[in-house]
Amino acid sequence: MKLNNIIILGAGIAGTGLSFNLKRLGYTGKITLLDSNEIAANKAHSTKTILKKIKEEYSIPYYHKYDKIAFCNYDNPFFLDIDAYSVKYEDMCNYFFENSNAEFKKEKGMDIVNNTLITNKSKHKFDLLIDCTGRSFFVRKKFKLPMSERFWIAKLKILKNNQNIKTNHMYWFTDEKGYFEEFCPYEDHIAVGDYLYSDKIDFSRIKLPEKLYRNKALNNIEIIKEFRAVIPSSPRFPLYYKKKIAFLGDSFGNAPTSSAYGSEAILETSKILSCCIINNNMHMYEKMWKKKYLDSYIKYLIVKYDMFTNSKFIKKIKNYPDNYSFFNIFKKYPEQVIKYLEDPNYVFECLNELSSENKFPKIQKLFRAYYYLFLHTRTYFESLRKF
Known about the structure:
Order of helices and strands: EHEEHEEHEEEEEHEEEEHEEEHHHHHHH
CATH class of the largest domain: Alpha Beta
CATH topology of the largest domain: FAD/NAD(P)-binding domain
Largest sheet: 8 strands, mixed
Helix content: 25-40%
CATH superfamily of the largest domain: FAD/NAD(P)-binding domain
């Protein structure tokens, strides 16, 4: 049966990016894009960071360009010569939508009955529904499907740039306890983020260290806006459910999060989904995705579990490297860091190279091997489960 009537639920990067790729790859059917708010309204961040590859492939208009990224720790950072682009999330989503064939309607999904989406305003019959609702998990909650178990939680601030702060450098700092600080200066403001990779959505877990780069760079901190973000970061299956519903983006828990280079992961996945829709073969969606991305996603997650784990057992192991040590080692290998940023899936291979030089202890290798087997096994049994 031809998929002539598609409903995309959620008008963020996943939903608008999918509508863009469907047109680009030649889909001619009807596309209805629904969201309870305006396009890009339910954003975790007002801006996103993308690299040159994705900017050029999609001709995405950018807001600000950085030519250096500072890594590591507060006292002794190192700079990478790499171009990074800040894009306004709303502008990017509207760009994708305006260059698609989708029709947008401001409606909130309420229920699904017999291949019909019931909203607060009307009923929409569909050949295929794609859930792009992100951490709202609309369909997963409706049908009690597995949901992401790990998250990036963040406290975010917009500060006034009332000092002479260089705007061509962005800063990423970490400490030994898993805290992560992002500092992105613009002409008139500075975006600051306090992040933690966590198995619970509990913002009290974010403990600020004594030394913060913002306190070093700014004499007077003037807060314009404060908000919080939760970004699912642990993929759960299925990607295709009951022959009529598919998932894209954070609604299944992207490993690289959509707030950072995860935008590329979402857009690349939407190309796979678009091809399956055009070829009327949705059964291939999950198979194609797993073949191309599953192993690299699991390797990526292993590093996150290792660097940002809250395991009491791990913390008791003497001399077990923390994420502070991880970045200190990377400091000696800037070419690996650049390769990692350009392709996040390379991080595991990079760590293997460093491990071969005895930079990491055997217990850490064993921990990673355990999680590799655990995540692959869990994924296998999820694929066997009858939903």
